[in-house]
Automatic annotation (TrEMBL):
It comes from Spongiibacter thalassae. It comes from the Bacteria. Pfam families: Response_reg (PF00072). Keywords: Phosphoprotein. Residues 2-119 form the Response regulatory domain. This is Response regulator. Transmembrane segments: none annotated. The modification 4-aspartylphosphate is found at residue 52.
């Protein structure tokens, strides 16, 4: 599975990448914000987009909306990361078509559960 991880903090990207590797997901590309991620999404094929909500340049919410508005990307599963369990943000993400969200900090088991949940829903 090819995963694009979009997170503005390099340390957090490294932690999440290590969690994904521990779960057997080693084909992971990285971008520091939505502006960097969009061209990657157009030039490569990814099976899952994992993105933080709050980032400079282009937020995860803006990235999610751009992905859902693009007919080539609209079906790409999107797992959104947030450090803020703000109900309004979660509702906005749900309305924008997020596949699932996870609140930081999280464990490898929580991450694995969300990824499995997304793909079980897609395959049913």
């Amino acid at each position: 599975m090819r995963i694009l991880l979009v997170e503005d903090f390099a340390t957090i990207r490294r932690i999440i990448r290590n969690l994904l590797a521990d779960l057997g997901y080693t084909n992971v590309s990285e971008a520091e914000d939505g502006m960097a991620a969009l061209p990657m999404l157009h030039n490569q094929r990814f099976d899952l987009l994992i993105t933080d909500i709050v980032m400079p340049e282009m937020s995860g919410m803006e990235l999610l909306k751009a992905v859902r508005a693009d007919h080539q990307l609209e079906n790409l599963p999107v797992l959104m990361l947030t450090s803020d369990a703000n109900r309004d943000k979660i509702i906005e993400a749900a309305k924008a078509g997020v596949s699932a969200y996870i609140v930081k900090p999280f464990t490898a088991a929580m991450l694995e559960s969300k990824i499995k949940q997304i793909f079980q829903r897609l395959n049913s």
